[in-house]
Known about the structure:
Elements: H1 3-21, H2 23-45, H3 53-57, E1 64-69, H4 72-84, E2 88-94, E3 102-108, H5 112-117, E4 121-127, H6 135-146, H7 153-165, H8 170-183, H9 193-202, H10 204-210, E5 219-223, H11 227-233, E6 257-262, E7 267-271, E8 277-281, E9 284-290, H12 296-312, H13 322-332, H14 340-345, E10 351-355, H15 367-372, E11 376-380, H16 390-397, H17 413-420, H18 427-443
Amino acid sequence: MSPDDIRAAFSSAMSSMCREEVPAYATLIDLVSKVDENLLARRSRLREQPPSDATLERVGEEPHVSILLGIASELNDTRRLFAVMGMYPVGYYDLSEAGVPIHSTSFRPVETTALLRKPFRVFTSLLRLDLISDLPLRSEASRILARRKIFTEETLALVAKAELHGGLTRNDAVRFVASVVATFRWQYSSGVPKEFERLRHDHHEVADVVSLKAPYINHLTASTLDIDTVQARIPLIGITPTPVIAGPPPRKCPIFLRQFSFKSVAGVSFEKANGHQGSHTARFGEIVQRGIALTAKGRKLYDRLLTDTRRVTVPAADGSNAKDYQAALADAFTQFPDDWKEIRERKLGYFFYSRLDNKPFSPYHDLEDLITMGRVRADPIIYEGFLPSSGAGAFHWNGHDNQNEQFGARPDQAGFERDLGQTVLNEFARYQAIESASIHACLSRPSLRRIA
């Protein structure tokens, strides 16, 4: 069974599990679908250009989940497990800059055909106990995690079998998917109930990771074409969203990633020291709208404009200055072109080029001429990653904003890669490879000269 088919089966099983565990998730997906359908119908009436086929593939129930791991061996085993599904670590995210002691990567498919087959991704984070200055807390967390086994013997045996034979048979793949999904199921009680209350008081993130028997799916995500409308309507179904959409402002030509989170939808029960039952919320959700993947030059411009915005105003957690922040954001981003042609010419984003006919090209026409003539199509390459430190914002919105400890940015990509067991892939290099391959496919046709 191909890794793409195994990933598709796993993604489908995860979606079913999420609908079962969180009934509101199904209602949310219905809302998103209606918003997207209305947007497409409106564009059709106005004869506006619809989103690219690749973008349309990403809307609605696009499984994208997040997990939190505790120790290096868990991260290493997770890497091996996702490789069976054709998913590889792309990018390094340091959340210490936002005061959260974790660092992360995104496991996802990387080849164009695999992305079109199923663009499933898992934002995978590792707890950094080295950043916790409370030595007794660090010691106790290490002790608890050392005895935790998050994957069954069957799961690890199937991973080893896939590594040895270059894949799994269909029967083995069915067993593999079932065993992995069982690992990520939500757990309603703590694995260390008597210690949970103290761990939660000392540090929320440590408690979230250490106190359960396995790395539960700590957030669910749906993708939309119109995130502003979804944010405005989501309270109508009883869900409270973050007051500010993270990322760039609304644009005619979407860039990078826009997202908002909503509050916890499940809780963990534990036994308090006085014998009474307590509870702790540890799951949240997200809505995302994906735009074009930015080049290093485009990302540098994006980061500068976001910094300029935050010099004017920083969004308050309660949303009291949301309008002021959005106005400052929109004003700053007038410097980022909102036209696909200019974005291409200034090399701010990545594009996929495809031939629209098989007729020979004149040697006097360059690629941009052929696009203007309607003979070559340039589609934005969709950004597959996450916003830097965006997970931290979601954690804090989820009620984890009363930490007893603060620390500055302390990235450790080398340490993360050592625990992972391989280097993470460079996201810019991946997008550039896709763009370059598409240009080569166009240029390989007779009579088309290469454009410098």
